[in-house]
Amino acid sequence: MSLAMTSPVTMKVNAQCAPFAQRGQMSASVSRSRTVTMAAASTFQSTKAPATLKAANQLEALKQMSKVVADTGEVDAIRRYKPFDCTTNPSLVYKAMQLPEYEPYLRAAIAAEKESHKGARPYAYIADRLAVNIGAELSKLVPGRVSTEVDAHLSFDTQATVDKALRLIDLYAAKGVDPSKIYIKVASTWEGIRACEVLQKQGISTNMTLIFSFAQAGACADAGASLISPFVGRILDWYKKANGRDYAPHEDPGVESVKRIYSYYKQYGYDTIVMAASFRNIGEIRELAGCDNITISPALLAELEASTDPLPYALWPTQGGSTDPHYDLSGKAEGTFLQMHGEDQMALDKLAEGIKGFAADQDKLEVQIAKAMGA
Question: Is the whole model's pTM more than 0.85, yes or no?
Answer without folding.
Answer: yes
